[in-house]
């Protein structure tokens, strides 16, 4: 059976690598991103490589957009087997007293509310199918906290607990829900702000494996969590950080 | 095949979860050493692995004995010349309330469940270091997180394995060796049946959020993933496999 995977934040970084991994495994991948051009680019890459993909743009913080997009995907493809919520970001690094309410809301909504809205629309489809896998994305900061990233850390910790609750709600219908927590990962967004040498100096001694992650390292874990080998796994948090935490 | 030509040592490989891991690795192309206190059973699992077209040997070992573990390492190197994957699954599970637990039983549980991890790691790490690669995967338990009445020594030994794994991951990361633990929930093996009736065992196994009975292969799958190249960036973790019964 042809499986359908919907990946938010699929236009860049970890989301892009996950989209490629799922497509390489034969899934039809719907690349969803705030940035339509980026989503379209990844769609084209997958199709060029012989895979099946579609692209769409969505702002995961807007309930009616999410509803529209999920409804459209379900109608066109008939099912959704995998939802990977990867859209997110920390956006700001600054002290708590410098955060405006609007900035706080932007970080919480993009990460936490976006995950909720996507799950709210996709879960009933998976429940009806009596199968499905949802993969949410946290961060090591969701466990350790991070100075200057208070809303991001809060949102990511929220995703971990949200995932556990949803896992319990959906388990009777055979739908599994897990969280992946990346550590420092070389995504284009991060690399814009850092040189490879600066990054190496900053992390190599802190990370036991001596290097930061490539998006493909994470993609393997997301993919594993969609396979039958992970059939007995739900509600869990999977760190992938080279031993940093 | 994800583990083609790798050499894997599985302690406690003669039955239950360890057997499923050994056969799973064999199916993925690894050569396997079935290391178990029960030599006869280990040989029969080695035969099963051979039938999959891989090379397998059985070694009788007491993981709580330095001499015996050294012999295991010697036989592994003699036969296969290398080690890529060490799975620490050998363990025991003795029931008694803390107030009446004997010192002998306490020592046995801690020495086998926890000490076996130390002795086996110590015996195989130098070879992994030399080749700048390796995978160590230890079987802890959900009970490390939840505790269990009348199994305090078992709970302590399994929680200690997680601490040991995290420390060892930090030590061995620079050598490209990953070290992880798996925390299974109660699985459909002989182990839970030792202290409960068949009916009670099955009722407990069914009572999970997923309503799925945890089978040895459900635990072997994630271990094959951790042993493969796909998990090269994962170290120091304790992943839970329990059908949703414990989330921590």
Structure keywords:
heterodimer; A: 245 residues; alpha/beta; Rossmann fold; seven-stranded parallel sheet; 9 helices; 7 strands; 16% strand; globular; B: 248 residues
What's the layout of helices and strands?
The complex is a heterodimer of chains A (245) and B (248).
Chain A: E1 4-8, H1 13-24, E2 28-33, H2 36-48, E3 52-57, H3 63-77, E4 82-85, H4 101-129, E5 132-137, H5 141-144, H6 150-170, E6 175-182, H7 188-191, H8 196-203, H9 215-224, E7 237-240
Parallel strand pairs in A: 1-2, 1-4, 2-3, 4-5, 5-6, 6-7
Helix pairs in contact in A: 1-2, 1-9, 3-4, 4-6
Chain B: E1 7-11, H1 16-27, E2 31-36, H2 39-51, E3 56-60, H3 66-80, E4 85-88, H4 103-131, E5 134-139, H5 143-146, H6 152-172, E6 177-184, H7 190-193, H8 198-206, H9 216-227, E7 238-241
Parallel strand pairs in B: 1-2, 1-4, 2-3, 4-5, 5-6, 6-7
Helix pairs in contact in B: 1-2, 1-9, 3-4, 4-6
Q: How much of the residues of chain B is beta strand, in percent?
A: 15-25%
Oligomer: heterodimer
Number of strands of chain A: 7
Q: Please, how many helices of chain A?
A: 9
- Sum up the overall morphology of chain A in one term: globular
**CATH level 1 name of chain A:** Alpha Beta
Q: Strand count, sense and closure of the main sheet of chain B?
A: 7 strands, parallel
Note down, in words, how this protein is organized:
The complex is a heterodimer of chains A (245) and B (248). By secondary structure, chain A is an alpha/beta fold. Chain A has a single domain (4-240), classed as Rossmann fold, CATH 3.40.50. Chain A is built from nine helices and seven strands; from the N terminus they run E-H-E-H-E-H-E-H-E-H-H-E-H-H-H-E. In chain A, helix 4 links the parallel strand 4 (82-85) and strand 5 (132-137). Chain A starts with a strand and ends in a 5-residue tail after the last strand. The model of chain A has no long low-confidence stretch (mean pLDDT 97). With 248 residues, chain B is of the alpha/beta class. Chain B has a single domain (7-241), classed as Rossmann fold (3-Layer(aba) Sandwich), CATH 3.40.50. Chain B contains nine helices and seven strands. A seven-stranded parallel β-sheet of chain B has the order 3-2-1-4-5-6-7, with helices on both faces. In chain B, helix 4 (103-131) runs parallel beside helix 6 (152-172). Chain B is globular, with a radius of gyration of 17 Å. The A-B interface holds A 164, 167-168, 171-172, 174, 176, 207-210, 213-214, 217-218, 220-221, 223-224, 227-243, 245 and B 169-174, 176, 178, 185, 208-212, 214-215, 218-219, 221-222, 224-225, 230-237, 239-244, 247.
